[in-house]
Design goal:
Layout lengths: L13 E2 L11 E2 L5 E4 L3 E4 L19 H4 L3 E6 L5 E7 L2 E6 L5 E6 L19 E6 L2 E6 L17 E6 L7 E7 L6 E7 L6 H6 L7 H14 L8 E6 L3 E7 L4 E4 L13 E6 L6 E4 L2 E2 L9 E2 L3 E4 L9 E7 L4 E2 L1 E6 L15 E7 L2 E5 L32
Parallel strand pairs: 1-2, 8-26, 14-16, 19-21
Antiparallel strand pairs: 3-4, 5-6, 6-7, 7-8, 9-10, 10-25, 11-15, 11-18, 12-13, 12-17, 14-15, 20-23, 21-22, 22-24, 25-26
Length: 396
């Protein structure tokens, strides 16, 4: 055994978890039943005083079996008071540290009960606790973080016809196919001498106005009982474009209305050409090549993919934010892909216990920020998805 040649003046540095070569000379790896005091040196730890037994809400005492193998934690809220907490199975209890007063823990309303996160675990080592001011973050080390499923949408259930130029006599043809293998039907509009962007895109004349021609063609196919054109068609006119959306609702063609939030969208395909050089219109459904092809106005939450090139690595996604929350004037902002996952499940992430009063707490999930932009390729899930979280930290 090597000889000890180093003198240690005191142990006032307390306990340190650093490796020995990084510890200060007066720091310890462990201090069992000891209390370093700057005035009196290293003292024996003071004894403990029994103040109360832990009781239930009705005032009766917990039995040893009822709290055996519980996971215990301590909450220090400085002048607001200190608390003792315990998790036993899928129950969470809190008492005041000074008097042992039972505190009411309310379970926050959620799609799934936050108590499911506790998962019947009864091992102290299965939990990590981190208290910051009024909030205690509780991590169940046995629960792997789950990714939310990808969102779904009906491909080619929306279209935008963007009018680039308009000259008297221009003939614009819009080809609509109701199914992936269906028959192409063509709506034709010829611009009159008095036509303007506004009249051509909002007028309802069946052969002179673009909106009217599309409306008349769909209505004609439905009148002919053409199953390829069934469903409800929504046509909206804007500053330089017309948008088309199709749902599985009862047959009909409506103007300047929006589908409900719970409708089911339906596939259709649109192509077209117009003008002397066949370049007076541009048609997009789920994507455009670059931002120059975006309509000036559209319906709220109209989402498109900006392709940029042939590779998926430079794809990004934009949605239209209407100033009135409906449609018309607004702006395009970056968003996430319509078929991407919103992120990870908050029900498998650390939960929170919030002090709402001197003897009241609320236990519930934390609303984490979802994926805001990109997709699983350009904005992949955090590395902890599919793994178990061992602890949380406070970074300021």
């Amino acid at each position: 055994m090597p000889a000890v040649t180093q003198q240690i003046p005191n142990f006032l540095g307390g306990v340190s978890r650093q490796t020995d070569d990084k510890k200060l000379i007066n720091q310890l790896t462990e201090c069992v039943n000891g209390y370093p005091d700057p005035t009196f040196g290293l003292l024996k730890r003071p004894g403990m005083k029994h103040t109360n037994v832990l009781k239930k809400a009705d005032g009766t005492a917990f039995t040893k079996t009822e709290l055996e193998d519980a996971a215990w934690f301590f909450i220090d809220r400085a002048t607001a008071g200190s608390y003792i907490g315990a998790i036993k199975g899928q129950n969470i209890y809190v008492w005041t540290a000074n008097e042992g007063t039972f505190c009411t823990v309310t379970i926050a309303s959620s799609t799934f009960s936050p108590l499911n996160y506790l998962n019947n675990t009864s091992n102290q080592n299965d939990y990590h606790f981190r208290s910051i001011q009024d909030t205690t973050f509780i991590t169940n080390k046995t629960v792997p973080v789950a990714a939310l499923p990808d969102d779904e949408f009906e491909v080619n259930s929306q279209a935008a016809i963007r009018l680039k130029t308009l000259v008297s006599g221009d003939v614009v043809k819009i080809n609509i196919t109701g199914t992936k293998t269906g028959t192409k039907r063509t709506a034709t509009a010829t611009a009159q001498a008095s036509a303007t962007f506004d009249t051509f895109l909002t007028g309802t004349h069946a052969t002179h106005d673009l909106l009217g021609a599309v409306k008349a063609k769909i209505e004609a196919r439905q009148s002919a009982s053409d199953a390829e054109f069934d469903g409800k068609w929504y046509l909206n006119s804007y500053a330089n474009s017309i948008t088309i959306r199709r749902t599985t609702e009862a047959n009909g063609v409506v103007l300047d209305q929006k589908p409900g939030s719970s409708v089911t969208y339906k596939y259709f395909k649109v192509t077209g050409q117009g003008g002397t050089n066949n370049n007076s219109i541009e048609i997009s459904q789920d994507s455009v090549t670059n931002v120059s092809e975006l309509p000036l106005e559209s319906f709220h939450d109209h989402t498109l993919t900006i392709l940029n090139s042939d590779t998926e690595d430079d794809d990004y996604y934009v949605k239209f934010v209407a100033a009135d929350g409906d449609g018309g004037k607004g702006y395009w902002e970056e968003t996430r892909a319509r078929d991407s996952s919103p992120g990870f499940s908050k029900f498998t992430m650390p939960h929170q216990l919030i002090a709402t009063g001197p003897t009241t707490f609320t236990f519930g999930v934390i609303d984490y920020e979802p994926r805001l932009t990109g997709d699983s390729n350009t904005n992949p899930n955090p590395s902890f998805v599919g793994k178990k979280i061992n602890s949380t930290i406070f970074l300021q």
